[in-house]
Amino acid sequence: MTLDIQMVSMVSSIATGIWLGASFDTYERISGKRETFKWTRILNDFLFWIAQALLYFIVLLQINNGELRVYLLLSIILGYAIYRAVFERLYRRILERVLKIIHYVYMFLVRLAYVLVINPTKGLLKLLLHLGMIVVLTIWGLVSFVLKWFFMPIILLSQFIDKKLGQPFLKQRNAMLAFIKRLLTICHIKKK
Questions:
Q1: 48 with 27: CB under 8 angstroms?
Q2: How far is CA 129 from the centre of its chain?
Q3: Residue 151 contacts by C-beta under 8 Å, 6 or more apart in sequence?
Q4: Distances (CA, A) of 41 to 51, 53, 71, 123, 166
């Protein structure tokens, strides 16, 4: 490995250390505080560090064919320390602003979806429900009207027979009249 390649490897390792600090802060900010033990958090941490290691290996592979030396690891630590000392505060402020912008855009899109899709759909469904109830009540009113006019001659005929013949089949007739009155009452109640 020539001196130039060693120098480029060292500078890229310092840059990787800075990158590690920034990406770790981003990961911590997005994933939240570590209050309770969760297996998903452990899995996410493991995948995060695997991804960072693969990224560093790809950088080294491009520069010096993937050779890893002790001074390169020390350069990563140096880059991480530079990040913590110089760039951390600035990066966190920028990160918070970017996250706020993303949050505002997300909330705008959610509200837009409510205004353009969800609320009109809910209104349309309510309208269809009301129209369905109007149709059902209209059909029920027509059926009750037909039943009323269908049974009215029977009631009038039975009253006529009562007057002329002196109430023959009184028990059966009362049962039938009670049934008809109950049916008309139900129709009347449903109509209201």
A1: yes
A2: 24
A3: 180, 183, 184
A4: 15, 18, 32, 42, 91
pLDDT tens, residue by residue, 53-109: 999 999 989 888 888 889 999 999 999 999 999 999 999 999 999 999 999 999 999
What pLDDT score was predicted for residue 33? 76
| pLDDT the model gives residue 110 | 95
- pLDDT category at 188 given cuts 50, 70, 90 is low
Query: Positive or negative, the Cα torsion across 91, 45, 47, 14?
Result: positive
**Cα 5 to Cα 188: distance, rounded to the nearest angstrom:** 96
* Short-list 67, 45, 71, 48, CA closest to 57: 67
Distance CA 176, CA 62 (A): 98
Judging by beta carbons within 10 Å of its beta carbon (0-12, 13-18, 19+), is residue 13 exposed, middle or buried?
buried
- Nearest Cα neighbor of 147 from 172, 175, 182, 171 is 182
